[in-house]
Amino acid sequence: MKKIAGYSLLLSLTLAATGCATNTAENSSDTASDNTPDAALANTYWKLTTLEQGTVAATQDNEREAHFVLHEEEHRVAGATGCNQLMGSYTMNGEQIAFKQVATTMMACPDSQGSERAFLNALNQASGWDIDGETLTLSGENNAPLAHFEAVHLY
Length: 155
What we know:
- By secondary structure, the protein is an alpha+beta fold.
- The chain contains two helices and nine strands; from the N terminus they run H-E-E-E-E-E-E-H-E-E-E.
């Protein structure tokens, strides 16, 4: 009789523990899908995906990917336009941003993408930013989108 009571107790505890574990796993997966964390604005590699006039062409051999990184401690911006390197500074106040003294190297590159000048114009005109998951949108006057970027995790 004691043996049957022991098995019944063991079975009850096992079922209770399994039920709790399953319920916890279901709840945590629901929470994870609803709350995708946003990428950080600073210290993230932001790859240019679209400009005001449309999608950015794929990078060709020996070309740099159009991107930028905001270095938080020095308030510096660094990256590439797709051809030339870019550097400068930025200021931020909440969801407002301004790029200052943006300069580029002056390599002679075919501007087959037609986006280097548009990318620099977007940075110069940017006054706001918004991150949704892994996508950054820089906007200008009246919150009009200027450029969209994708977070690239390097490691």
